[in-house]
Design a protein that fits this description.
The protein is about 85% helix and about 0% strand. By secondary structure, the protein is mostly helical.
């Protein structure tokens, strides 16, 4: 397993690092965040459907890159749009939403993986990302 997980992790980090090099050139808007979230969800679907290990590596790089695009985009948007005295509170809330759900979601996804297979939690993540993108797009359209 280690011989498989190590190259996969390197590819995901390469996608993450390439995204962090590219993102400073992109102006972060709500549209950018929505698109990166949707692409993240679609890439999760693609990762769950890969037919063999050769396809896993490039798709995992896309997943890594788009996850970083989502996280850095939402953090930048939160910092730029929050009132100055509220930035710490807003970022704390964002951290709770991104990381604080792991103690509940992790075991639930583990149960899904044990009972339905390892691809199902990846699909659940893709569904969640696409739902988040759709909800954000609806609110963005209503707001203006």
């Amino acid at each position: 397993m280690g011989s498989l997980a190590t190259p996969l992790l390197v590819i995901v980090f390469a996608g993450r690092d390439s995204a962090t090099c590219f993102l400073p050139c992109v102006r972060v808007t709500l549209r950018t965040i929505i698109v990166s979230t949707a692409v993240f969800g679609l890439s999760m679907f693609a990762l769950a459907a890969v037919p063999n290990i050769a396809w896993t590596f490039p798709v995992a790089a896309v997943v890594g890159g788009t996850s970083v695009a989502y996280m850095t985009g939402t953090t930048a948007h939160a910092q730029l749009t929050a009132e100055q005295h509220m930035i710490g509170r807003v970022l704390a809330l964002q951290t709770v939403l991104l990381i604080g759900t792991t103690p509940i979601g992790g075991p639930l996804l583990g149960v899904l993986a044990d009972s339905l297979g390892g691809r199902v939690p990846v699909l659940v993540g893709g569904i969640g990302a696409l739902l988040a993108a759709a909800i954000a797009a609806i609110f963005a359209r209503r707001a203006g």
